[in-house]
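[User] At your convenience, examine this fold.
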Amino acid sequence: MEIPDTLITLEHAAEEARAALAGLEGEVRQAQWLAWRAAAEQVQAAITAHAAAAAESRYEVERAVKLAVRHPAVVPAA
């Protein structure tokens, strides 16, 4: 499955926003949580749109994107 670079970029941004939550408290954490949520919503919408346009399983597209971002050395089966 071909994964567009835009999906990889969006997932990286969401993961970076999630990781930035570590150690935060109070209003700063709330603001970062909102940033993470917005980034996660954006990547989820892009995955859904790509899967629909490519007539692919949304689940499989999401799995491939997460695998590519979290484990770049692993090549998913076609």
About this structure: The radius of gyration is 14 Å. The chain has a mean pLDDT of 94. Residues 5-70 form one domain. The chain has three helices and no strands.
